[in-house]
Amino acid sequence: MHDVIIHLTMFALTGYMLTVMYIVNSIQNWIEDLYWKQLDLKYPDMPDAMVHHGFYYAYHNTTLRSGVIDGVKRAKELFGDLKIIVLGHSMGGAMASLCALDLRVHHNVGDVQVMTFGQPRIGNAVFASYYTQFVPNTIRVTHEHDIVPHLPPYYPHFPRKTYHHFPREVWLHEAGFGLLAYTVDTVCDGSGEDPSCSRSVMGNSILDHLIYYNVNLKAESWNSCRIVRDPSLAKYGTTDDAGNIKLSKNPVSSALKLNTELDAAVNVV
């Protein structure tokens, strides 16, 4: 069994927002805009599931969707049955979640896993319930006082009208004091809105949004983006003319070619 990893963003926040959703002047402006996003679009074929149209259209009505679907189809032709792991940071986390749901519901992809970092809420509680049903293998990582997972706001007294996270949250936070401080990974409950996790603190930090697992996800300059990749993986990667990075233990030969060579060797023996 092979894995394919689709990087919807380990891009920095500003670059991804510029190319995928709309042009903003600053991170602060984008965050302020998140406060006012309304649940105004019914998710197709899921009764009472509501999302914000901006999140939905940023994935479904752009070339992002067709590019991902085409990539998955081509990978399946080469490698056969696959585990799909979809990753995303910030707005890319919202796109990663919608992508995974799309693959499961509309493209019969059986094994889809999701890991996001600092993603905003994207739908109501009914949507979160449907999402969990179709994409149960989801980890939604939050960090300390990261402001973005707190947005759009959650209003517990209006459960039918408010945004609602889906599980499973893993909250990264500091414990101890001074030289004895250390990072704790708290696995939260299955509600999506565990009051003892990131909701237990004020979401007021942009810095916490830009650093996850000690990796700085910020772009070097405005109007730019970058792919965050472990330097040790460079020898396994090639980049095509479209800027897609392909990782393989044997980047020169495809798995299809390798399988053909192995079959030929067996037949000779």
From TrEMBL:
It comes from the Eukaryota. The keyword Hydrolase applies. Pfam families: Lipase_3. One of its GO terms (molecular function) is triacylglycerol lipase activity. The chain crosses the membrane at residues 6-24. Gene3D superfamilies: alpha/beta hydrolase. Its EC number is 3.1.1.3. It is an enzyme of class 3 (hydrolase). Residues 25-153 form the Fungal lipase-type domain. GO terms for biological process: lipid metabolic process. The keyword Transmembrane helix applies. Keywords: Hydrolase, Membrane, Transmembrane, Transmembrane helix. This is Triacylglycerol lipase. It comes from Opuntia streptacantha. The lineage of its organism: Eukaryota, Viridiplantae, Streptophyta, Embryophyta, Tracheophyta.
